[in-house]
């Protein structure tokens, strides 16, 4: 082997090593963050599911499968079913409101599109708790809504608008509606206008064009928007606590109570694992439906 060949191989090895080091320099902070704040806590939570609760709380490191059998208790199944119902209803309402909104925004001139999209995401610039407390001010007994209804003579006394499931759904829709509108807008914006024109030229009415052309082509945006709304709604515990007054318990409230009040960390970890499994299944279904579409 000649000296030029050896020097060339050495230079190539150094170049490859420098590229690897450069990539690690860019990926290192992100990987360290994921390992420290995601993988390690997730591993701890998964390990807690295999142990039992101590007499005074915490974790006793004795293997047991009791935590998984408790998931089938009717008491906890009712909480899960109730959470699915509220999250599903909020997702449906967000879809019914968000689709026409996204469709109208997509038809606006470019200047007004930007203004409308900024208006959609504007609530995210305000603290989440501040927005929820604003709903409490609006819907409370002496709040603006009840005061207006009484002054207009529509009701004789203030209505009980707070601390019920309807208020929880309203709060969920308000909080996550932008997450429905934005993917729907992106899907509608990518539609080729000539497809709708061709449908109209073939004699299809607007409703038929929508059902046969627009709706199928925007199905990936619908699935993504529904996932973006359903997932945080299903695990939310702040809105049921503040707007529901703690009367309607969702999965997020149950998990929080197991860790902070009951101090049953193993069962709380098991509930968290079950919630994570549900979310993974939903993500897989979303990916499958997007590929099919």
Automatic annotation (TrEMBL):
Q: What is its main location?
A: membrane
Quote the subcellular location field of this record: Cell membrane
Statement: the UniProt record of this protein carries the keyword Transmembrane helix: yes
Sorted alphabetically, the keyword list is: Cell membrane, Membrane, Transmembrane, Transmembrane helix, Transport
Keyword Calcium in the entry? The reply is: no
TM stretches of this protein: 24-51, 79-102, 114-136, 168-188, 209-231, 265-285
Q: Which residues form the ABC transmembrane type-1 domain?
A: 80-286
InterPro entries, per database record: MetI-like, MetI-like_sf
**Membrane topology per the record?**
Multi-pass membrane protein
Task: Give the family this protein belongs to, as stated in its UniProt record.
Answer: Belongs to the binding-protein-dependent transport system permease family. CysTW subfamily.
This one is known as: Spermidine/putrescine ABC transporter permease
The protein's organism comes out as Streptosporangium pseudovulgare
- Which taxonomic lineage does the organism of this UniProt entry have? Bacteria, Bacillati, Actinomycetota, Actinomycetes, Streptosporangiales
